[in-house]
Amino acid sequence: MNYHVPIMKDEIMSFLNPVPNKIFFDGTLGGGGHSHEVLKGGARLVATDLDTNAIEHCRELFSKFDGNFTLVHDNFKNIINVLEGLEIEFLDGALVDLGISSHQIDTPERGFSYMNDGPLDMRMNPHGKMSAEDIVNEYDESELLKILYEYGEEKFARRIVNNIIKERKNGTISSTGQLAKIISNSVPAHLSKGHPAKKTFQALRIEVNGELEGLKKLVEDMVSVLKVGGVFCVLSFHSLEDRIIKQEFKRLAESCICDKRLPYCVCQNKATVKILTTKGIKATEEETKNNTRAKSATLRVVQKLNN
Asked: I want to staple 122 with a disulfide (CB 3.0 to 4.6 A). Which of 29, 129, 132, 276 is the partner?
């Protein structure tokens, strides 16, 4: 699994419990680490990814499981359409890993890394219309500030944006190295935790790929296609997406949505799911030693209660 190291693989499989005659969905195929475990358990797999490189890699990796998997070049947020196209009504379990794959980060020409110089791209779907270069060079000051504040939670957003605007007057900002240098010159070194470009690159990546758009609907759609007793696992890597997942899981787990001032329940609402990970699960110390990218991961899981 040199393509991508799967995070919390054992923990996730303990919730999914893939066995023959069951169908599971992996919304973010990546290097196929989690999907491979599903297939090893004898279950049928349906998986999606925006990255055609990931699909090609996994099609070869899974060749010995021929006939037991279907790989689709699509966004996991289109789960309803994907399953309808395959004439699958319900799933026994599903997983979505909201992070970026190690392969994408470690391939400079994909433009995700602030550590290695490459084209300023950041598209998970290589055929996507908008790249990070488009955003950095074409968005106006207010738009860039909004992205850095909201998606990167960057305290020095104004300094960074001012310097980006100054630099692009001299020509197009076209490489990750060029942008990382602008950011580094904008952030006081003694006030920066880790690489100064980390938050800005995160913000741009989220904007390029629309990562936070439709997450609420995703949770609702995914739960709707689970069989009763089926589980939905979500791996998130920063507070913005984890907050959305946590809130949506909590909403679906509420059995009463009445005004709290009422003396008794009149809504007759029923909880759709049971939360199996109250505080979220973090990777073990041993795993984070072997894979530093696991440090920021949070796993949340729910089980379908009723339709």
From this structure: 132
